[in-house]
Predict the structure of Purine nucleoside phosphorylase.
Amino acid sequence: MTTTPDLLSDPATDPFAVAEQAAAVIAERTGAERHDVALVLGSGWGQTADLVGETLATVDQAQVPGFHGAAVAGHSSVIRSVAIGDTGRRALVFGTRTHFYEGRGVRAVVHGVRTARAAGCSTIVLTNGCGGLNPAWGPGTPVLIRDHINLTAHSPIEGANFVDLTDVYTPRLRDIAREVDPDLDEGVYVQFRGPHYETPAEVQMAKVIGGDLVGMSTSLEAIAARQAGLDVLGISLVTNLAAGISDTPLSHAEVLEAGQAAAARCGRLLAEVVGRI
């Protein structure tokens, strides 16, 4: 399969220009001049895309400037253009993301976010599969992200560009999600670099500093989204209790199984939230 060159690895390349190129290709191949809402489907969320709406067009993201194929089992390399009910609006659904641990750099991690903005989106929904620190959140529990702690020691923002992250996860969107599902809890997501799972000591550290959820994505994307002026909704799917919270060894297979079990609830949640945004 032919893939696009790694356009984002050159420091001299403008990442926003690459995002504009990517958005132009998506517009051409989907027949949609603009999209309104973007969704990034993390581990365990793949099956929910079918419940969001009718897929009107698909694009192999490896053929779009700056993107690569999925690097994680259970993720899809397809970008979907999805109808949002009968409103005439469209959602841009990314079946995978680039993780920081892949070693492609922070620009690649946030390229989907910047492409969504260049494609016309004003809102982005970031989902992930994660470990939970609250024993009451069993596998398959969706949790709203109220805030995050970025432990990657990196930022997607380059230069003296000081972005306010006070409300990085838009309160209005969290209110909409709770209207759809009043049983939703919320918590603070802690991003580690990965790809290894966190040690029990690291999980306890995350708890001490205010974390409720631990994972390997999302916070860098949320920062880039706020820089771009996007409203952000973050939803984690607790796929397992974090290391040391439970005696059960961690595995990616467990992540996928929890996602399959929760697909109906999560799909309905996303569909209704997107329809109300």
Remarks:
- The chain has one domain: 7-276.
- The chain has a mean pLDDT of 89.
- The CA atoms of residues 22 and 65 lie 5 Å apart.
- The first strand starts at residue 37 and ends at 40.
